[in-house]
Each structure stands twice: as C-alpha cells, then as structure tokens.
Amino acid sequence: MKHFEVIIGLEVHVELKTRSKLFCGCSTEFGADPNTHTCPVCLGMPGVLPVLNRQAVVYAAKAALALQCTIHSYSKFDRKQYFYPDLPKAYQISQYDQPLAEYGHVAIVNGGEVMKTVGVRRIHLEEDAGKLNHLGQRLGDAKGSLVDLNRAGVPLIEIVSEPDMRSADEARLYLTELRNILSYLDISDLRMEEGSMRCDANVSLRPAEYVGSLEELPRVEIKNVNSIRNVQRGIEYEVARQAELLEAGERIIKETRGFDDQSGRTYSQRSKEEANDYRYFPEPDLPPLVLTDAFVQEVAGSLPPSTMALREELREAGVQPKDIEVILSDQGALTFWRQATTLFDDARLVTNWMLSDLSRLLNAHGDTFATSPISPEGLVELLNLIKRGTLSGRMAKEVVDKMYETGKPAEAVVKNLGMSQITDGEAIKKVVEEVVALHMPVVEDYLSGKDKALGFLVGQVMKKTKGQAKPDVVNTTLKEVIRAVGEKT
Ligand SMILES: [Zn+2]
Questions:
Q1: DSSP type of residue 253
Q2: Which residue did the predictor score with more confidence, 447 or 183?
Q3: Where does residue 277 fall: left (phi above 0), alpha (psi -120 to 50 degrees), or beta otherwise?
Q4: Which pLDDT score is estimated for 140?
Q5: How far is the CA of 126 from the centre of ligand 1 (A)?
Q6: Are residues 101 and 179 in the same domain?
Q7: Is residue 37 very low, low, confident or very high in pLDDT (cuts 50, 70, 90)?
Q8: How many angstroms does the Cα of residue 86 sit away from the middle of ligand 1?
Q9: For residue 449, what are the domain limits?
Q10: Alpha carbon of 197 to ligand 1 centroid (Å)
C-alpha cells in the first residue's frame, strides 16, 4: 500500500446555554412544542432589528480564553447567505473575516502525557438555523418536511481547528479534550446526541511524494456527526475510501458527505460550497463588536482551573493516568471524588471503588455520579468498614449493591445482612480444623507438594463461614493446622 499523509481539521459548533437567543428575547429551551419559541426577529420578518445578547459574548470569550486564543478588541458580524427552508431570513448572521478570536491551541493528552498540540484557527459567534423534521425514515424517501424554528437564532460558537490532526484517533482525543475544557466552563450542555455540540470533519490524504508541498488538496467534509465515537469511525472510513481511490489512480472530489451510523460509512451529499458561494457581506443592522481590555480581564478572572491543573491535582493524589481521564471527563465524578477524598485519606481506594463497583451500579441504573443514590459520605462509610477489617472486599461488594438498592447506609446494611467479618482467630481455627478433618485426601495432596490443593481448602472454609472469615487469617491458620497434621503422620 502506498503511503499517504492523513490531514484532518475539525469544525465544532457549540450551542451556548444562554437563556435567550442571540439576537432576540426568545427562550432557548430544548424540547418545546415546535415554533413556540419564536418572534418576528428570529422568524426573519421584514423591518425587525437584531440586538446582541451580552451573555453569549461572555460565554464565547470564556471559550476563547480557555482555548488560549487571542480575543480581538474589534470584530464584526456578517451575513452568510444561502437558501434553505430552516433559515427564514435566507441568511445566517455569522462572523467572517474578522472573528471574535484566533490563534489558540488544545493539547491532546494520551496516557497522561501531552501527545501534541492542535492549533485553534478561530472562534466566532453565530446564530443557529431551525430544524427540519422529515416525514419518513430518510430524507430520500420522506413524504414531506416540517419546519421547526425554535432553534433558529440560538447562539453558537464555531471552533475551527488547524488541519493538525494526522489520524482518527488524534481527532477523537482532540474532541475529548475540547469537550473536557468546555464542560468546566459551564457554557453549553455539550450533548452531541441532542445537537448542542456538533462536529464536521475535513479529511484529505496527501500522497507521500507531495508531503511538504503547498498544493491544496481536495477536502472531503463529513457533516454533523452525532458522537465522538462516530467522528472517529467516519474519519477511519473516509481515510480508507480515499486511499483506495488514490491507489486506483482516481481523483478525490471535493464534496460534503454524511455519515451513516448503521453501516459506518460516509455517503455523498453534495459538492462543497466555496466561501464566495455564500456572498458574505457585513451585517448592516449590527454595530461592530468592541471588547475592552477590562472586559477580557473580567472574563479571564472568572475562568475555572484548567483541565491541566485538574489533572495535576488528581495525579498528586496518586490517581493513575487512565483513571484521571475518566474522572476528568465527568464533572460530577470529579466533585464526588473531591468530597470523598476530603473524608478518606486513601485516594486510590476511593478511585477504585468509584470507577469499578459504583460505576457499574450507576451505569446499570442509568444514573450518574451527580445523581448517585450513594453519596460520597456513604461510600466513605463503607470504605471505613473495609479499612477496619469489619468487611472483606468481597463482602463489601455485596453491601454496596444493597446500599444502592435500599438507600440505607453501610452500617445498617451490614447489620441487616448479619454480616461482619470473622477476625477471631479461635473461631476460624475451629472451622479450619473441621474442614481439614473432612478433606484429609486433599490435605495429603497439599503435603505431597500440590500447592493448588490449598485453594480448595480455603474455599471450603469460606463456604462454611459464608464468606465472612478474614482471608489472610484463614490462609495462615490452614497452613498451621496442616503443618501440625503433617508432623503427626
Ligand atoms: Zn425570537
């Protein structure tokens, strides 16, 4: 196979969670009855005037600073013109040649290490379009389409990366980190499945002999993919498709393609527009956006700690790189972890319990750490019982299930189940002697060098004590008793 350099750039649209739309007072709430959140401004009636939402500018500036961009003191709005039923004005108010912010970057983190830095070319503010609901399974065989303009005019930022990514995996890591960063800013719901975060991927392949050349390559844009996983799948498919075409001596056509979730394939939608197809021109109804240093300073002062600082906090507490990424990707998990670790000094044990047993229960019940029926205090109470030796790890697993089911604290569950670990050496010795007497052939096997036989005997003791005997005490006691038997024979 010929060698190709894969070149990927991503455009990410993020809906800002302001209460009202970008240029009018209509609500931005998701899921309302169609066309109930509309007014003459967002319906594009003649004679109306847009007024910029200040909160949207603050949110956009937060994103720009968190992505290390330079915020321009002067930017302006432009009309991007195209005809489509979801766009009542037949133009979208966006920012073209003078965007809000430029020259940022996002560090891609893999296995706890910064793998590379992806440039952020620009961030601009724009309004969303409405939504078409097709009456049919697919657009192709729909009987008709209904227009819902509730979304028309909802504020968006578009974050355009440099074409710095070289694999589908890097694109996934970039999106993951972008979502992490934005989630701590609390400026968007970031729900890809609901469309509050949407991603278009530009993919092109450069044959080895052109590496380093400035010749522009035909780009294929994969539009509106609804999850990070699917962005990765779409790019993987597209890279393979383009490589096959190029190897067969064919040309790549510059086009826009959709992604089909079921088949994992991309499919041709239309040939791609050039910027000048949109006939951009300055929006005459809005003054330029002028942001003072004082405004930018104020926004900068309101930023939460960066994701890199959060990673450092978790790393210093002894959390493993893989677990750090899991906790970091869920704000509720980080809050839970912080509360639990202020009450319990073994951060590793907290992390292990959170990411294994508690996660298992949360996933099974469709809960999250933010809505967990077991509180950080509740988990710590359980961990204290393990630490004090009242519960073995195995018993604790049973207890945590019951805690989740009943909402009762660990102590109460332990009492109800009549559970507590037998640590009394004499009590264990009694059971061990019974087991040894019952299974003499196995004991002899062990004495003749079959180490595995011990496991069976341990199992028998645990069975007799209903799993409540302390395993290390069982082990040492068994060896002692067997040694005594061996000396006698
Ligand atoms: Zn409106």
A1: P
A2: 183
A3: alpha
A4: 73
A5: 15
A6: yes
A7: very high
A8: 14
A9: 425-488
A10: 21
